[in-house]
């Protein structure tokens, strides 16, 4: 799994990790039943604290995307539906707009212009 973090991104690191894993599941890189690498390995590869990765994994478990099994690690429980993927991308778009000085209403107006 190739995860990338943007250190210029204003979102907390655990949200970035969760978004990357969510995207990998939605795009089919991981399918239901696949095991994820251990949190410690992911943290080391990303250069962040293992607790940050664990927090992201717990968030995804709470969303129903991941399943924790004692002694078996973390596996994909289900596939992210289209709405979940769009919500994740909308959040990313909103954060990007905020970095450029645009608010929610500005972004909505831009989207209305496109439709």
Walk me through the structure.
The protein has 115 residues and is mainly α. The chain has a single domain (13-114), classed as Arc Repressor Mutant, subunit A, CATH 1.10.10. The chain has 5 helices and 2 strands. It has a two-stranded antiparallel sheet. A hairpin with a 3-residue loop joins β1 (66-69) and β2 (73-76). α2 (39-46) crosses α3. The chain is globular and about 50 Å long. The N and C termini lie far apart (35 Å). Keywords: DNA-binding, Transcription, Transcription regulation. It comes from Nonomuraea muscovyensis. This is GntR family transcriptional regulator.
Spatial separation of the terminal alpha carbons: 35 Å
Largest sheet: 2 strands, antiparallel
Strand content: 5-15%
The total of beta strands comes to 2
**Number of domains as seen in the coordinates:** 1
Q: Which structural class is indicated by helix and strand composition?
A: mainly alpha
Rg measurement, Å: 15 Å
CATH H-level homologous superfamily name: Winged helix-like DNA-binding domain superfamily/Winged helix DNA-binding domain
Strand order of the largest sheet: 1-2
Number of discrete helical segments:
5
Q: Please give the CATH class.
A: Mainly Alpha
| Helix share bin | 55-70%
Poorly predicted regions are: none
Q: Choose one word for the global shape.
A: globular
Return the average pLDDT rounded to an integer: 87
Order of helices and strands: HHHEEHH
Going by CATH, the architecture would be Orthogonal Bundle
CATH topology: Arc Repressor Mutant, subunit A
Pfam families: GntR
GO molecular function: DNA binding; DNA-binding transcription factor activity
Organism: Nonomuraea muscovyensis
Protein name: GntR family transcriptional regulator
């Amino acid at each position: 799994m190739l995860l990338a973090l943007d250190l210029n991104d204003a979102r907390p690191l655990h949200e970035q990790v969760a978004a990357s894993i969510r995207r990998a599941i939605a795009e089919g890189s991981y399918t239901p039943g696949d095991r994820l690498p251990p949190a410690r390995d992911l943290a080391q590869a990303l250069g962040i604290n293992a607790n940050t990765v664990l927090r992201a994994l717990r968030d995804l478990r709470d969303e129903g995307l991941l399943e924790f099994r004692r002694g078996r690690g973390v596996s994909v429980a289900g596939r992210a539906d289209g709405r979940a993927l769009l919500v994740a991308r909308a959040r990313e778009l909103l954060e990007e707009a905020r970095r450029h000085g645009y608010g929610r209403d500005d972004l909505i107006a831009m989207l209305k212009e496109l439709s």
